[in-house]
Amino acid sequence: MLVLLERIREYFPILLQGAWLTILVTLGSLALSTVLGMVWAVMRVSGIRWLANIATTIVNLLRGIPIIVLLFFLYFVMPDFGLSLSAMQASILGLGIAYSAYQSENFRAGIEAVDHGQVEAARAMGMGWPLMMRRVVLPQAVKIVLPPYGNIMIMMLKDSSQASTITVAELALQGKLIATSTFQNATVFSMVAVMYLVMCVPLILFVRHLEKRNKP
Amino acid sequence: MIEIHGLQKFFGTHHVLKGVDASVAKGEVVCIIGPSGSGKSTILRCINGLESYSGGTIDIDGVHVDHQAPSIKLIRTEVAMVFQRFNLFPHRSVLENIIEGPVFVKGEPRAGAIDHAKELLASVGLAEKIDARPSQLSGGQQQRVAIARALAMNPKAILFDEPTSALDPELVGDVLDVMRKLAETGMTMVVVTHEMQFAREVADRVLFIDGGVVAEQGASAELLGNPQHPRTQDFLRRVLHPM
């Protein structure tokens, strides 16, 4: 028992460093995916056909490519075209781009769920499309979009472990490194699992809070 | 002020309006009546470009109504609309709903818009609801706020699309009272309605729409009291004596 505690104390700081990188990758790719997802969503509901088609194509393309392949592409292939990214940059970019497809679908569903009468009321008072989106549609869409957005955050936090495949020493990779050098697989991976869980719990509670609030 | 000539409208292959001719003079109150699905609301929605039309012309003070032209925005600030289901903005307070158009569409200073909004709210009898959310109001109250919101734009005319059809019967009177007072101020109003009593008392003219055309029109007392067209007679008999 004492030995176990000793090991935990030894591994914890290293894993904590990994957890820190996990949070950085998650926050970075969350921000990027939110912005990109918003752009695709607005293009799709713009009513301008070629814009909508471009966005639809991008979203479908991204949905069809595994995240890990996207990461490999950014990290191993882009240097051939003269674009060398750090592992951290590549993982934020890759996860952000990959998740923008899901964000976009969520945002679009939220925008389309706003009552059509709201659009008509805005138009009938002379609002143009940008003003209507900003003042009437998007503020109402946010409420609809937030609970699924929280779920996407949870998925991203866990999927940030895929950054380990391109050498980002985040929580999963740190765990693997410790485990291979100490053979304490059970201890190390239990710690890794618990640490992921601890990071997810606040997000899970956040989603539950939003879902409760949105109930009529 | 509003001139409609030969208005045609298709929904897919369904020919809804088959050449509607109508005009509304400044200060006039015109009620549009007719059976469900006759295209009454569609006419109204074509006037402010919420709906496109496939033939004919609509002019408002000489400006052609084209829902794709930039001029449509100006037309909409001058011709306000009140909807059957109110369509207040649920994420904004009553006051914010009313000043939304003046401040964000017309660019009026906020302070002046707030003063104007307070006057309008008082005139529809809801001064104390200024900070309420639409969800805290009854249907009748929401519709009166919607009328105040329309008036806040200082419109030349207001289009009413079945303004009392979604209301509980006991709430209809308050809304009609507000509309009656509005008519007395000389506001130009086009009202699609099933309230025959209102049409008889308040409207200057009534248009009876049936089969996608104006089947009969005339002074309200005359058309409602002594209809000439057999379909008008039949419709009024059904509406006035449903039992």
Give a written overview of the molecule:
The complex is a heterodimer of chains A (216) and B (243). By secondary structure, chain A is mostly helical. In chain A, α6 packs antiparallel against α8. The longest helix of chain A is centred in the first third of the chain and has 44 residues. Chain A is flat and about 75 Å long. The model of chain A has no long low-confidence stretch (mean pLDDT 92). Chain B is of the alpha/beta class. A 6-stranded mixed β-sheet of chain B has the order 6-7-8-3-9-10, sandwiched between helices. A 4-stranded antiparallel β-sheet of chain B has the order 2-1-4-5, with helices on one face. The longest helix of chain B is centred in the C-terminal third of the chain and has 16 residues. Chain B is globular and about 55 Å long. The model of chain B has no long low-confidence stretch (mean pLDDT 92). At the A-B interface, α5 and α6 of A face α2 and α3 of B.
Task: Offer a quick outline of the entry.
Chain A is mainly alpha-helical. Helix content of chain A is 83%, strand content 0%.
List the SSEs and their pairings:
The complex is a heterodimer of chains A (216) and B (243).
Chain A: H1 2-45, H2 49-64, H3 67-77, H4 87-113, H5 116-124, H6 129-159, H7 171-182, H8 185-214
Helix pairs in contact in A: 1-2, 1-4, 1-7, 1-8, 2-4, 3-4, 4-6, 5-6, 6-8, 7-8
Chain B: E1 2-11, E2 14-24, E3 29-33, H1 40-47, E4 55-60, E5 63-64, H2 71-78, E6 79-82, H3 94-105, H4 110-123, H5 139-151, E7 157-161, H6 169-184, E8 188-192, H7 196-202, E9 205-210, E10 213-219, H8 220-225, H9 230-240
Parallel strand pairs in B: 3-8, 3-9, 6-7, 7-8
Antiparallel strand pairs in B: 1-2, 1-4, 4-5, 9-10
Helix pairs in contact in B: 3-4, 3-5, 4-5, 5-6
How would a textbook summarize the main sheet of chain B?
Answer: 6 strands, mixed
Shape of chain B: globular
Quaternary structure: heterodimer
- Report how far the terminal alpha carbons of chain B are from each other: 40 Å
Uncertain segments of chain B: none
Give the uncertain stretches of chain A in residue-range form: none
Largest interface, counted with CB-CB under 8 A? A-B, 17 and 22 residues
Please bin the fraction of helical residues of chain A.
over 70%
DSSP strand tally of chain A: 0
Helix-strand topology string of chain A: HHHHHHHH
Distance between the termini of chain A: 51 Å
Return the structural class of chain A.
mainly alpha
Number of strands of chain B: 10
Structural class of chain B: alpha/beta
